[in-house]
Design a protein that fits this description.
- This protein is an alpha/beta fold and about 110 residues long.
- Helices cover about 35% and strands about 20% of the residues.
- The chain is built from four helices and five strands.
- The strands form two sheets. The protein has a three-stranded parallel β-sheet.
- Helix 2 runs parallel beside helix 3 (about 80-90).
- The two termini are about 20 Å apart.
- The relative contact order is 0.19.
- The mean pLDDT is about 90.
């Protein structure tokens, strides 16, 4: 288990090493807060101390965003949609939970 020290799990310097040690090259991302945690995991972010942390895409991972398994906040109407579009434009592939399960099971 990895402790998440900020909005991105990659703020924990061991995260990348653990994934690489297990030969993980592809991530399926779901969770709460597309505006912060999910976005920061996928794209580069800054920690609360100002340190820049590379995201999964910059680290070379294939990223699948499980779109029916995420939530967020619309501070302004359409905020979640705009972040979703930003993540897609950066290279995150939108998938449904059913697609993710099928792909993961096919890979075994």
């Amino acid at each position: 288990m990895l402790e998440k020290k900020d909005t991105s799990v990659f703020s924990n310097k061991q995260a990348d090493d653990v994934l690489k040690a297990h030969k993980i090259k592809e991530l399926y991302v779901s969770g709460i807060s597309i505006n912060f945690c999910i976005k920061d995991l996928i794209l580069a972010s800054r920690t609360k101390f100002g340190t820049v942390v590379s995201g999964a895409l910059q680290r070379g991972y294939k990223v699948n965003l499980v779109v029916d398994g995420i939530a967020g906040i619309d501070y302004q109407p359409g905020d979640q949609y705009r972040v979703l579009m930003q993540l897609g434009a950066a290279g995150a592939r939108p998938v449904t939970t059913a697609q993710a399960i099928e792909e993961i099971l096919m890979d075994k």
